[in-house]
Specification:
The protein is of the alpha/beta class. Helix content is 38%, strand content 22%.
Amino acid sequence: MLFRDRRDAGRRLADRLRGMDLPQPIVLALPRGGVPVGYEVARALAAPLDILLVRKLPTPGAPELALGAIIDGAPPRRVINERIRREFGVRDEEIDRIAEGQLAEIARRRAAYVPDRPPLAIAGRSVIVVDDGIATGATMRVALQSLEGAGALRRVMAVPVAPPEAVAALEPLCDEAVVLLRPHALGAVGRFYEDFTQTRDAEVIRLLRQARTGAMP
């Protein structure tokens, strides 16, 4: 299976999700790439769309490798991959510095994407967390952990593609994992898209605005 683009992947995910028992669904997308996917899921399910602002913590000397991830909140929550930390000898002060930079980016994105709007309430709802794909799972792990204790009726992880080992590690954090492709040799998420052009802020803002005025109840 090859997805044309993120919107196509979202429609295919929605086809799978429609048959599930998901009372009062709400879609939480991970910006930026998860928003086009989540928009199509929310539209198909007539569900509200919101965002979870999570940022990868890049490893010093290997920025494409996730040292961990962080999500805004009071206080912010972060997850560190201890194996990578040990392998690269990353000190606590380095992690703090990296985290501060990513929190600044989270603040910028919140101001740009959802100005003057608090996060939507998720208590008593079926929460569907959506991204455009999973490589290591660090970002999704923080996203799912951020929902603990928030009163969600069900927690569903929904992604077009993810390696089976990452899915297995994340399944204990959710009630159900919906993954269309589980390749053992993932390589890179973009390999499974014909068009994996970087999602721009302008597209995120436009889709969130459309969701609020159209698909969102």
